[in-house]
Fold:
Amino acid sequence: MTDSTREIVKKVLEGDIRTVARLIRDIDDNMPGIRDVLKALYPHTGKAYVIGITGAPGVGKSTLVDQMIKHLRQKGYTVGVLAVDPTSPFTGGAILGDRVRMQRHSMDKGVFIRSMATRGQFGGITQATRSAIDVLDAMGKDIILVETVGVGQDEVDIVKTAHTTIVVVIPGMGDDIQAIKAGILEVGDIFVINKADRDGADRTLMDLRMMLEMETDRERRDEWAPPILKVQAVFDIGVEELLETIERHRSYIIERYGDLKLRSDPKRVKESLIQMLKDRLFETFLERISKSGELERRVDEISKGILDPYSACDILLKEHVV
Amino acid sequence: MTDSTREIVKKVLEGDIRTVARLIRDIDDNMPGIRDVLKALYPHTGKAYVIGITGAPGVGKSTLVDQMIKHLRQKGYTVGVLAVDPTSPFTGGAILGDRVRMQRHSMDKGVFIRSMATRGQFGGITQATRSAIDVLDAMGKDIILVETVGVGQDEVDIVKTAHTTIVVVIPGMGDDIQAIKAGILEVGDIFVINKADRDGADRTLMDLRMMLEMETDRERRDEWAPPILKVQAVFDIGVEELLETIERHRSYIIERYGDLKLRSDPKRVKESLIQMLKDRLFETFLERISKSGELERRVDEISKGILDPYSACDILLKEHVV
Structure:
């Protein structure tokens, strides 16, 4: 370990805001050198309770997270927040707006809020988020809230990291619930119907209940029936009940796994390792074949019709994966 | 090439429906042996015109595709349709419903419709779709319509394969357009406001126009300003204009690239090869470390706290990627 790595690790463990902020930005940008820091931090992780909050744009996730922070702080917990937006820079404005809503907590030293915005050319947001969670964990935050826009596989992978995953919907989404939420429904431990004063909240409740009952591959369905809560985050209605439900889910996990260290659960460890390998593998491989000029050569051959892409793929894999 | 491969290739080139259907299912299931068939078919591809149709659930993509088929058939073109739904099996019902709407064309031998439903454990839908397009191309379809639910990176990657990409929205999606469509906007060659008789169509038109003007990284923006069309697919209003606009875009491509063989454009070839490598690479790698027992051993070590996942990753990559 270099002196600089040692210094960063020390400062993160002391909870130094500036160091943590820079490290998370470096993770987001996939800067070289972060892995040594992450390795050294790893033994200091596994203490935080991680809560994932996901749902389509516009369901009020940020407002809910903002209220959850308030309640958690009142109970004396320190809180880390990661807002994950693997969409294009194009939406920067809207997303910054959301973040601003949480800024009332920005003067509170017990709260640390960061956005993960950039997604590398070939994904990697999942691994970057997992690493950022490790950092907030190592810096000593009791509770980590991870907010994602629930629209893709990336988001599903990210919330799998959480101890408790909350899926947020709003009334009147109609068929959209069925279509958009597909993969997300399966990972939800608790469902929140936000803006529950709107028309159609009971209908949404019924729809959700029915869909959850239809699920056949929910591993834990016999043990933990996901509760559905009506919330009005903007008026702070139902948020306390949500936190109590999270607490109940936490007790369930401890009972089931013996402790909160999901990272000692081989199934989760395997998923997480495979995810990390996937990102790193491609990065490593692409770098090799780019540097050596092989990629360009094969592209050229395909463009000229000398080689088909399937054979090009076979050749490159055969030469580089042993 | 084995006799069986040769036989499949021959039948695909003859346009044998049953063989093509089975091959596409095999591609979707990632069955062994498909790559030899695809290699042999490759020289017979590159003739079809590929149109991507994407948009959120509920915007009426299937109805639009259904009408497009009708118009294209009237003009004498043969049509292949791939409906790509990389969501969980959970939504099977809804999606089947959509497909049924197109079934009025099922007795027409000039139309071939298939869904790509399964997504492998670690992605792969993009590559599977590209391969299925190649098959429809080789079987002799003039026009291939690829319908995807526009919510994730996978969908963006898939429509990149198309000559012309149509993004479908509906009035009154409000902020959602901004949030959900991010990555999709950038790939749209033509925008369709479907259900344009609904309130707010003009507002949506203005919003879209503004967002397209805000785009700075649109490579072709000076050459091809994406038109925005108002359509009522269910009443067949605006569909003919859409097809004329596609025709205009086709002329633009020919003018720009010299021909329609985007596959000879090195930039597209490179993107496509990288995508294929990504899927295959991980599959190959995971198979190796699973069979050899290394994956399980490392998972075990991480679970027991002997090894951290970052180091495990380093070790596995070092041993297998040269």
About this structure: The longest helix of chain A spans residues 266-291. Chain A is about 50% helix and 10% strand.
